Amino acid sequence: MTIGLGPHLKQFFIRIGTMPQTVDGTGWKDQPTSESAAERIAPKAPILRHKILNLMIAIGSPLTADEIAKVMNLSVLTVRPRISELAKAGKLVDSGKRGTNASGRSAVRWRVSDQEAQP
Length: 119
Hints:
alpha+beta; Arc Repressor Mutant, subunit A; 2 domains; two-stranded antiparallel ribbon; 6 helices
């Protein structure tokens, strides 16, 4: 059950598996702050996913979320969830390569899935 959404927004939210999502695939964790963030980004999320995917296709080499955020001049906190959504949709996949994120930890270098890379 979705809690905290106004009645006009409830029709746009569904639950897939354990994570609630908007019908366009914007997900959040079962916490009020996460749900609120999902509500705010939901109108922009499809556009951001499209821009990320187009960037990945244009660059043609695997990138970390931090690298994508830097190229797009966005916060990694905006980019990471969109990458998760693209991965869940099968549009981005783990390349098997690793980079380093801003905190110095190992980070997945994502690549466009073979299915999405075809014209």
